[in-house]
Amino acid sequence: MARVLLGVSGGIAAYKALELARLATVAGHGVRVVMTEAAGRFVGAASFEGIVGAPVLKSEFEHDPLRGAFPGDPQPQHDPIGHLEVAANCDAYLIAPASANTLAKLASGFADSMLTTSFLACTAPRLVAPAMNDRMYASAATQANLATLKERGIAVIEPDEGRLASRGEFGRGRLPDPVRLLERLEAVLPGGDRPWDGLRVLVTAGGTREPIDPVRFLGNRSSGRMGLALAVAAARRGADVTLIAANVTLQAPAGVRRIDVETSAQLAEVARAQFPSAHVLLMAAAPADFRAAEVASAKLRRYDGLDLHLEPTEDILAGLSAARSEDQTIVGFAAEHGEGGVERAKEKLSRKGADLIVLNDVSDPSIGFESADNAVTLVDSSSETPVPRASKDEIADVILDRVAALREGRQSSQRADTQSSP
Ligand SMILES: Cc1cc2nc3c(=O)[nH]c(=O)nc-3n(C[C@H](O)[C@H](O)[C@H](O)COP(=O)(O)O)c2cc1C
Question: Among 110, 115, 332, 412, which is 20 to 30 Å from 384 by CA?
Fold first, then answer.
């Protein structure tokens, strides 16, 4: 995997750089961190050092115990000049967060710290992720500095709009989610590890809404986080990803094709159209099992009373798997309550014709729906594997590893069949 140099400057969003360092390390990259003096007022070097397993670099005059090497790489015999060595060894250099002050220095070519000297000396792809108050971001000086950096081929990861650190303030200036920062970083890494290059992956996410009248619906609590995490993880492996998003308010990852739907009938229709060209289907959405048999054309009034008749919706997963081809891999998700979940997941596996069921125990309110974490059991025809509580990003990677193993297993048995046939 790649050698990533992460520069952290002084802003409130520096805490997000810790998560970015963690995600990049979990993704298998060797990470070195460079901090400005001001960054040290917001987060501690010890946290970065614990996460990436290498000393943080702060001053160009300090001795680097690793002599500019990245974790996992051998150290040189000689003692090189620190800022030049890390800059020469990295595959990409990302400054996140990039403060207004640091952007001004980078645009002007300052070389007064480890961060600025190594940035100046770096010939690998360089990225900056500005994060600051919206007025600081919109200021003519900051915008001119960003324009200068862009002109010089430095990628600028635009900040998000939303709630800002200072109380009650909203605007553009938020550092994007670390998952998105890592995606942007990985997109510039040379010949990154893309084992799913050429694979088309269809992911469904979110929960459907079945209308009762023009303003009310039957819905569920699925946020779409698990589906989005799967889409991100598949795209990171190089897959061509289509996401069918049912009422998902979260932003889809860059590079993923997104189709929005509302009802289970719409989800079924879009999935039917997309499925034939997909190699892998990850059915993480929670489509409703029932819908109103009749939808009122005008808003129902309380004093008229309500006698709601429900009818079952289409079984989307079973319908798709009935039309599957040999080389398609189908993953279903089962939200089960309490004991007997594994047995019900096994029954679902065969009834729905899926290759893998990801079982979610929804009796624990601290995981699953709407939560950033999950704990699941992977159930396939020959095994059941509990995956302990972890972030949905980590769970997504475990699921994709299993999909890769299932596909590899099927391909090798197909090869064996071909060789043994006369
Ligand atoms: C509480 C606090 C929060 C700050 N947040 C930011 C910020 O989000 N973005 C920014 O550009 N500057 C922010 N600053 C100002 C920088 O810390 C300051 O400009 C510093 O000199 C930046 O140094 P550096 O670019 O060398 O890291 C903040 C300052 C304080 C005191």
Answer: 412
Q: Where in the chain is the domain with CATH 3.40.50.1950?
A: 3-188
Contact 376, 351 (CB under 8 A): no
Contact by Cβ (8 Å): 90, 57: no
Is residue 2's pLDDT more than 60? yes
242 contacts 201 by C-beta, under 8 angstroms:
yes
CATH 3.40.50.10300, the chain: domain bounds: 200-417
The DSSP bridge pattern shows strands 290-292 and 310-312 to be antiparallel
> Rg of the Cα trace of the chain?
25
Nearest CA-CA partner of 330 in 273, 262, 402, 267? 402
Task: Report the pocket of ligand 1 as residue ranges, CB < 6 Å.
Answer: 9-13, 36, 38-39, 99-102, 131-132, 136
Does 220 qualify as catalytic in the annotation?
yes
Closest CA to 236 of 252, 260, 258, 256: 256
Q: Does domain 3-188 have CATH number 3.90.1150.10?
A: no
Q: pLDDT (tens digit, 9 = 90+) per residue, 66-84? A: 999 999 888 888 889 989 9
The two structure tokens encoding residue 308: 């709601």
Q: Angle 55-60-62 (CA atoms, 0-180°, nearest 5)?
A: 55
SS3 content of the chain, % helix, strand, coil (to 5): 35, 25, 40
Give the closest residue (by CA) to ligand 1 atom 10.
Answer: 99
- Under 8 Å between Cβ of 81 and 62: no
136 CA closest ligand 1 atom index: 11
The pLDDT score that the predictor gives to residue 74 is 86
For residue range 143-197, list pLDDT tens digits in order.
Answer: 999 999 999 999 999 999 888 877 888 889 999 999 989 988 988 886 666 789 8
